[in-house]
Every structure is written in structure tokens, then in C-alpha cells.
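Quick one, C-alpha cells below. Sequence please?
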């Protein structure tokens, strides 16, 4: 498994690319731009800025060698927060489904870190599913003492993602999965990605917090 330092290096490169995209769209805004062009540029800048915030929220946990299971959070609360943020982000035609039954218990992990980890994966899922696909967020028990948090989309297959995340190219969604693997391993959990039935599903498996 890659070290936290290696992941942060790759993460910073990803953020640099997003900052470049913000600058590119900002440079395209001038007095000659139409209302539609201004609106599109604004949406792209907001999208990139949202992604940057979530990537940067993972830096400290990845570098924190003491990151562990001193707190927990309800999957229902996690996915509800994720749903609200994605609605504000805007799916641009993507159908968003959420299935998080009440009463599953709490999973191990810091709520803010898990939120941004799932949000980063969800941003990529929305991007892959555009313009008229589906993204599904789901929480389900997988054992008497573990919960699976799933982000699924019906976009095209990403060959660099599916399989062993440790061997995937460190960019985009594969990088998010590698970050998830690193953080969840410290909690006694794991991350995996599969392609099945025309959909890509990233699954975070976390032990219950007791």
C-alpha cells in the first residue's frame, strides 16, 4: 500500500490540475462573453472549487499517523449530508439515488474525513455518469460487525480503477480509491472497486463503532 506522503504528493498534483482548470475558465470570461458562456464558466469554476475543497480535506488525515477510530458516524447521516451537497453541486442531468436505512449503527472514522472521501468519489461518479446517467449512494450491512458504503454510477468503464486499487494509476477516481484504502486500513476496513452489470461501484467497508 502506498504511503500517506506518496498519496498527498499525487493529491497535490490533482489539485494543481483543478486550479489550472479554474484559471482557464476564469481567463475565458470577458466583456464579450454571452450570458450562456458566463453561466457555463461559472458552473465549471464552482465544480472545480468544490473538488479542490474535498481533495484538500484529505491531506491532514493522510499525513496523520495517529488517524484512527476514536469517533464514529451514522451511515444515514453521512449519506444525507452527501446528498445535500451533491444537490447543491448539481448533477446536470444525472439522476441521484440514495438508500441509507435507519438503524444500521455507526461506522468507525472521523465524520468530516469520511464525508469528504465519499464526496470526492461521488464527484467522479457524477462526472462519469453525465449527461443522463445514474449515481447511487447506498449503505448496507455486509456482516454482523461491518457496513458497506457504496458509490455507483452507470458511466463507461474506467480500466485504471477496477481491480486492485493499489496498482491503479494515481489520478482521478483511482487516486480517491487509493486514499480510501490507506485511511480505511487504519480503521480495520478496506476499499474496493468493481465493474458489474454496466455500472462501476466503489465500496468502502467499515467496521461498526462500538
Amino acid at each position: 500500500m502506498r504511503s500517506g506522503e506518496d498519496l498527498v504528493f499525487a493529491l497535490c498534483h490533482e489539485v494543481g490540475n483543478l486550479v489550472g482548470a479554474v484559471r482557464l475558465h476564469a481567463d475565458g470570461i470577458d466583456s464579450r462573453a454571452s450570458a450562456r458562456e458566463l453561466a457555463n464558466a461559472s458552473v465549471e469554476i464552482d465544480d472545480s472549487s468544490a473538488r479542490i475543497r474535498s481533495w484538500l480535506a484529505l491531506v491532514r488525515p493522510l499525513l496523520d499517523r495517529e488517524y484512527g477510530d476514536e469517533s464514529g458516524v451514522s451511515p444515514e447521516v453521512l449519506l444525507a449530508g452527501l446528498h445535500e451537497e451533491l444537490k447543491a453541486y448539481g448533477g446536470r442531468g444525472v439522476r441521484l439515488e440514495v438508500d441509507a436505512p435507519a438503524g444500521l449503527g455507526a461506522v468507525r472514522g472521523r465524520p468530516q474525513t469520511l464525508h469528504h472521501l465519499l464526496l470526492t468519489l461521488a464527484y467522479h461518479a457524477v462526472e462519469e455518469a453525465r449527461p443522463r446517467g445514474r449515481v447511487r449512494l447506498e449503505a448496507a450491512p455486509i456482516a454482523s460487525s461491518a457496513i458497506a458504503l457504496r458509490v455507483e454510477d452507470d458511466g463507461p468503464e474506467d480500466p485504471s480503477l477496477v481491480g486492485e486499487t493499489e496498482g491503479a494509476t494515481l489520478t482521478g477516481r483511482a487516486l480517491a480509491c487509493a486514499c480510501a484504502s490507506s485511511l480505511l486500513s487504519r480503521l480495520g476496513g478496506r476499499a474496493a472497486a468493481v465493474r458489474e452489470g454496466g455500472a462501476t461501484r466503489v465500496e468502502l467497508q467499515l467496521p461498526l463503532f462500538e
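The chain has a mean pLDDT of 86. The first strand starts at residue 72 and ends at 73.
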